[in-house]
Write a structure and sequence with these properties.
Length: 460
């Protein structure tokens, strides 16, 4: 099979055209093997399967693992782009979007043209590429996007590699230059079943893919486990890392980070706020050093980073509103702690939890909200196919002091309620949706932006 003779490749039988290759993938709701006949009827030149489908046709070829095969095929079909780029792959529960933006900004500041693939967009400079809504796209779009960025002049692509992607081998066939681990805490247990499986999925990035450098946050217990698995063959960052965080201060104005790298001490400042930014910044700065940039150049990048929907602040008449993407117990607690420090009066939090996602994180999110906020307004996030009331009930189970809780399932009304009742000196944290510009209810995505509601209510 010569890649140049193939007209197109797909894992969706409905997309097959004359002369295309169809690869059958077993998914979680259906199985591509059920659609082999359809692919053949639509003119597939070859069909790859991993089990017998009871059809006799010489175009059908059996391989051991069709997910891996699709990654390798897409890699070949698009000309092995990752080998001609330097791909920086970042995984972990929280901080992928933020740190990949920092990497992008730092390298661009150093004159190294860098693209970005992640939750908010796939972009290189001012160009936005086709985006199908997932942090890490399927193998075909993954390798195709790398190829397009390469052709458009990118030398590096900074990407978020989700645990779903690692489990489903969406990035199979990729040669990484750098891989990085941010942290691991509870999320996605609906999909992975247990923290151990979730961890094993993340670990794959470090043990199954070619890479020059693995960067590990060793202040995280799972980071230390990865380091053990790698028998110490990694570059670490953290309070006792190879890149050592010496001091970190964060306030409403921004953050200051002091660190040591290869025997020298450096100071950086950034507009990013929050305790956890010490780690995201360290990761971005470490990547800058590994690319040979000097501290001054890195500082230029670090001060330019903008990450939509992460700790976005709005201020009016003594009230501070913060829109943030925290949607896990760990992220919510960390952002609440940061918000608490900025609060002179009372701290409000408005949040919900996504439907058809990890249910067990809901009471844990309720618990941290109850612990750190003075007033808790529970509302809807993206209910998807679940009833908003049922999700809210799950969150409520985690809160001990019910007297500080308000329930308003309409997100716009909930935000309004908190902002209108907040007094001078109060802080209102609106968590969970960050950059999202929709609310997904029963299969329909309605236009919705937390930021727009805040602007409307505060008139800013
Ligand atoms: C749980 C999950 O990851 N699901 C993804 C998965 O769907 P699935 O396993 O249900 O697939 P399926 O519907 O059973 O279909 C199996 C196969 O049959 C094929 N098929 C199906 C029907 C047909 O008529 N013909 C046909 O050939 C499909 O093309 C597919 O290849 O494969 C689909 C095709 O690639 C994806 O669209 C889908 O992502 C859905 C939309 C999704 O919501 N994924 C989320 C959970 C996700 O991936 N999130 C992570 C990030 C999370 C984070 O940021 O922390 C992400 O990377 O975005
Ligand atoms: N290093 C970190 N540690 C803990 N929490 C963090 C960290 N960085 C960011 N956060 C919190 O997590 C939220 C999500 O951050 P970010 O979007 O960078 O993570 P992500 O890993 O890309 O998430 P997702 O898996 O949903 O794409 C932020 O809004 C912030 O509240
Ligand atoms: N990538 C994450 C995003 C969650 C964002 C939150 N707003 C929600 O809808 O749960 C997920 O799919 O679980
Ligand atoms: Mg992300």
């Amino acid at each position: 099979m010569e890649p140049s003779k193939i007209k197109g490749i797909t894992q969706n039988s409905k997309e097959v055209q004359e002369g295309w290759v169809f690869v059958a993938i077993k998914g979680s709701s259906t199985d591509g093997h059920n659609f082999v006949q359809e692919a053949l009827s639509r003119g597939a030149s070859l069909v790859f399967v991993e089990r017998d489908v009871g059809i006799k046709d010489e175009r059908i070829i059996k391989v051991e693992d069709t997910r891996k095969f699709l990654g390798e095929l897409a890699n070949e079909f698009f000309g092995r782009p990752s080998e001609r780029l330097k791909v920086v792959g970042i995984t972990g529960t929280n901080g992928k979007t933020t740190s990949s933006h920092i990497v992008e900004a730092v390298l661009n500041a150093g004159g190294i043209p860098t693209g970005l693939i992640g939750t908010i967009y796939y972009r290189f400079k001012n160009k936005i590429y086709e985006y199908e809504g997932r942090t890490t796209p399927d193998p075909i779009q993954w390798h195709r996007t790398l190829k397009q960025m390469l052709e458009d002049g990118a030398e590096v692509v900074a990407c978020e590699v989700s645990s779903h992607a690692l489990d489903q081998r969406r990035v199979w066939g990729t040669k990484f230059f750098i891989t990085a681990f941010t942290n691991l805490s509870q999320d996605h247990l609906d999909y992975h079943g247990s923290m151990e499986n979730y961890f094993r999925a993340k670990l794959r990035l470090f043990v199954e893919y070619p890479q020059e450098y693995s960067l590990i946050n060793i202040d995280d217990e799972y980071g230390r486990r990865i380091l053990e698995e790698l028998k110490g063959k990694a570059i670490t960052y953290g309070r006792n890392g190879n890149l050592r965080i010496i001091d970190f201060e964060t306030s409403i104005e921004g953050s200051k980070l002091t660190l040591e790298w290869e025997g020298r001490t450096y100071k950086f400042s950034s507009n990013l706020r929050g305790e956890f930014q010490a780690y995201n910044l360290s990761l971005g700065i470490l990547v800058g050093f590994l690319f040979g940039l000097d501290a001054e150049t890195i500082q230029h990048g670090v001060e330019r980073v903008i990450v939509p929907g992460r700790f976005e602040t709005f201020f009016k008449e003594g009230k501070l509103a913060i829109v943030d993407y925290a949607h896990t117990p760990d992220a919510l607690e960390k952002v609440l702690i940061t918000a608490r420090r900025l609060t002179k009066g009372k701290l409000w939090v408005v949040f919900g939890a996504g439907g058809n996602r990890d249910k067990t994180k809901r009471p844990l999110m309720g618990k941290v909200a109850g612990k750190w906020a003075d007033f808790v307004v529970i509302t809807s996030d993206n209910p998807r196919w679940e009833e908003p009331e049922a999700i809210i009930e799950d969150i409520l189970k985690g809160i001990e002091q019910k007297q500080k809780v308000f329930v308003q399932k309409d997100r716009k009304e909930a935000i309004k309620f908190a902002l209108q009742n907040a007094k001078e000196g109060d802080v209102v944290l609106i968590a969970g949706k960050g950059h999202e510009d929709y609310q997904e209810i029963k299969g329909v995505k309605y236009p919705f932006k937390d930021q727009d509601v805040v602007k409307e209510v505060l008139n800013v």
